[in-house]
Design brief:
By secondary structure, the chain is of the alpha/beta class. The chain has five domains: about 160 residues, no CATH class; about 150 residues, Rossmann fold; about 70 residues, Helicase, Ruva Protein, domain 3, CATH 1.10.8.60; about 160 residues, Rossmann fold, CATH 3.40.50.300; about 80 residues, Helicase, Ruva Protein, domain 3 (Orthogonal Bundle). About 50% of the residues lie in helices and about 10% in strands. A six-stranded mixed beta sheet has the order 3-5-6-7-4-8, sandwiched between helices. A six-stranded mixed beta sheet has the order 9-11-12-13-10-14, sandwiched between helices. Strands 1-2 form a two-stranded antiparallel ribbon. Helix 15 links the parallel strand 6 and strand 7. Helix 1 packs across helix 5, helix 18 packs across helix 19 and helix 24 packs parallel to helix 25. The longest helix has 26 residues. It is elongated and about 130 Å long. Keywords: ATP-binding, Nucleotide-binding.
Length: about 725
């Protein structure tokens, strides 16, 4: 006697036993038939009535005489012994027998396996459809009824009542959805034993060797087998020790449910995969958001199918998007998910963004909550180096510390950014494809949260330090602002200031000065210097006349900006962050509450925010005191204006050599913004004349700018005597 060579050989041997049972019952049924073959099934004969009355309760009349099938039943018993012996040999040899594994996974008894095999036979060979119809005396009944299954598997009428319980809804076969019990369409409201049993399609394919997920949930699940170990993950020591304890927990210990709470991309799935790697388990990831979107009705059945799939794969379960189930109207789905998670043989991971406690919903299971935060700068630096090593990117020439400091990325975003940078490098230089710091900065901006673009206007920086004209002290202040971002990691982490400061580590500063003095330009220069995007907040989308809406809109902007890795630019900030007034009525009281909320929210903001105002005196004094920087943008002096005039005209612009830009700077007290407008208007006047830019064009354009500004000037200010020839 030899062992089964593979799982399918064992399955066919077990089905051979079922085939012998069917043959024995066909012989008994045939021997008991006395009515005319031509009219069988169309009427009940007198002989049939007598046979039915003579049969014991719970036994078909054709089984009352055991003689016609006795020989085949003896052959069945002999075959069962040989099959059991060969099965033991195969298991001892380490051969995976899927039917045996299924019985072990779902605690199936020998009778349960027999029921499943009777239902399975018709799924593998259609001749059993006719045989089942014959035994049930009805050509339309091509699947076994519960009554037929009982007759095939248990000859003792009294014991048959016990077998009937194996079809109960909470019995293993049906609770695990291995078989389905349904009404015969041709027989409405039949008795329970008249219902039809059918093997589940996924179970059939599993027994035949398929590991493809159930088609009903295939879009919502995926198996993850390759993972890093816990030692290679970038984690703080306390979190690592706790996860190692989960990984080392005995398999026969209490059920374990781990809630991983943190922002998207923070590494929750990597943590679950690493824990499973330590335990030698694959991880089945279930997407609850997609499952909810695809479901036509209740989620209970799909959740049960996912749990069954995890058992078939011997995998731990990872419920991605767990927050989807926390809505009040999805309470039944939440209870079903927790029931599945709490009864799973391996750890179940609930992954979401919202803090949550199970209360009494997980009785009998150990609940562990793990907060997965965005990595701090030192962790991000390690992650960048680790990902660069994985992608074989040379790091000595890369500004990884600067990138880690400026972009508060999750592990997932760092991985995506490195892949994007490699693609950008290949596009830029297909032959070399060496990733540069610029490729990384561009990739990081592409992988930042783009939702902010729907709430604010993105400003593309077009200027550098050579373009801005300010007093030397103001330029120094702007450079100091950049240094605060560049050296955050060194000061806060390496030098320990992070432990000394309880307030937010964000950076908020004020640009104050008349319109056109360079506030927006300075913001763009800072963004370009740091390699960050600049978003100008549209106040029309923020300020609302309805109570509470302004705060809600601003909160939405700050929430999105936290993950956008961008600089927020609030122009005319005094309209939002203005002084609080004396309370005279309810409107004043609410206005002060609104301002107070806004001040608190921007103080808590961890990113970079620039507030610009034309009227510094309108800003709330208490708020201004909390700002890290305040930069005053003065009106330009004559020397400043002259420098602006010299730099404003592009190199390729045709101009009269006699242009007296010193005169323009001396005579007209304009800001940088006004000078830009005048130069552009003069260029269009010259183009219309088909000529180069002359003094007449500059002075005419200046007059239009003064009129636009509403300034009253004498006619003599706009006369120009040409230079003597």
């Amino acid at each position: 006697m030899h062992a089964f060579a593979h799982s399918l050989e064992h399955l066919l041997a077990e089905l051979e036993r079922v085939d012998l049972l069917i043959r024995a019952h066909v012989a008994a049924f045939r021997a008991a038939q006395t009515e005319d073959e031509q009219f069988r099934g169309l009427y009940v004969s007198e002989q049939q009535v007598d046979a039915l009355l003579a049969a014991p309760l719970g036994m078909p009349a054709w089984l009352a005489d055991d003689a016609p099938r006795r020989d085949r039943l003896e052959a069945h018993a002999s075959l069962a012994q040989r099959t059991a012996a060969r099965k033991r040999l195969a298991l001892d040899a380490g051969i995976d027998l899927r039917l045996e594994r299924l019985a072990r996974l779902f605690a199936l008894s020998e009778l349960d396996v027999g029921i499943l095999l009777v239902c399975l036979a018709v799924e593998l060979d259609t001749r059993y459809e006719k045989l089942y119809a014959y035994l049930q005396d009805d050509v339309t009944k091509t699947r076994p009824s519960i009554d037929l299954v009982l007759s095939l598997l248990e000859p003792d009428p009294l014991k048959r009542f016990d077998v009937r319980e194996r079809f109960a809804a909470d019995a293993p076969l049906r609770s695990a959805r291995l078989i389905e019990v349904f009404d015969d369409p041709a027989r409405p409201s039949p008795p329970f034993i008249g219902k039809v049993a059918r093997a589940d399609e996924r179970i059939v394919s599993f027994l035949l060797g398929s590991d493809r997920p159930d088609a009903r949930i295939a879009r919502c699940v995926q198996i993850s087998r390759d993972a890093q170990s816990l030692d290679t993950l970038v984690l703080d020591d306390d979190t690592r020790r706790g996860l190692q304890g989960i990984a080392r927990a005995a398999a026969d210990g209490p059920r374990m449910v781990v809630h991983l709470q943190g922002p998207p991309g923070a590494g929750k799935r990597s943590i679950a995969r690493a824990v499973c790697h330590e335990r030698g388990l694959p991880l089945l990831v279930a997407d609850l958001e997609r499952l909810h979107a695809d479901a036509d009705g209740s989620l209970v059945a799909p959740l049960d199918l996912i749990a069954r799939e995890a058992r078939l794969a011997n995998a731990a379960l990872y419920w991605n998007g767990f927050d989807t189930l926390l809505a009040a109207e999805r309470r039944s789905a939440l209870e079903a998910c927790l029931r599945v998670a709490g009864s799973a043989p391996h750890p179940s991971f609930l992954a979401g963004e919202t803090p949550w406690l199970p209360g009494s919903a997980l009785r009998g299971a150990r609940y562990v909550s793990v907060t997965v935060s965005r990595p701090a700068v030192p962790q991000r630096i390690r992650l960048w180096h680790l990902v660069a090593e994985i992608h074989r990117v040379a790091t000595p020439a890369l500004d990884l510390t600067g990138i880690a400091t400026k972009f508060k990325f999750t592990p997932g975003q760092i991985e995506a950014s490195m892949r994007t940078a490699a693609s950008l490098a290949s596009w830029r230089d297909p032959q070399n494809a060496r990733v540069s710091s610029q490729d990384l900065y561009d990739a990081c901006r592409l992988n930042s949260n783009r939702t902010l673009a729907t709430l604010a206007h993105k400003i593309t920086p077009r200027f550098d330090w050579h373009d801005i004209v300010l007093p030397a002290d103001r330029v120094a202040q702007l450079r100091e602002i950049c240094n605060h971002i560049k050296y955050r990691n060194q000061v806060f982490n390496d030098w320990g200031f992070d432990r000394k400061l309880a307030s937010s580590k964000g950076l908020t500063f004020l640009f104050a000065g008349p319109s056109g003095t360079g506030k927006t330009m300075a913001a763009g220069i800072i963004a370009a210097e740091l390699g960050l995007d600049l978003y100008k907040i549209d106040l029309s989308l923020v300020i609302s006349k309805f109570i509470g809406e302004t705060e809600k809109n601003l909160a939405h902007i700050f929430d999105e900006a936290e993950t956008a890795n961008a600089i927020l630019f609030f122009d005319e900030a005094d309209s939002l962050f203005g002084k609080r007034s004396e309370v005279k009525d309810s409107h004043d009281r609410y206005a002060n509450i609104e301002v107070g909320y806004l001040l608190q929210r921007i103080e808590e903001y961890e990113g970079i925010a620039i507030l610009a105002t034309n009227f510094r005196r309108n800003m709330d004094d208490a708020f201004v005191r909390r700002l890290q920087f305040t930069v005053d943008f003065p009106l330009p002096t004559e020397g400043d204006r002259h420098r602006m005039w010299l730099s404003i005209l592009p190199e390729h612009t045709p101009r009269d050599p006699a242009l007296d830009l010193a005169l323009m700077a001396r005579r007209y007290n304009l800001t940088g913004g006004n000078i830009r407008n005048v130069a552009l208007a003069a260029a269009f006047l010259a183009a219309d004349d088909g000529d180069m830019i002359r003094m007449t064009h500059l002075i005419a354009a200046t007059q239009r700018e003064y009129q636009k500004m509403g300034k009253l000037v004498g006619d003599g200010e706009f006369r120009h005597a040409p230079p003597p020839s």
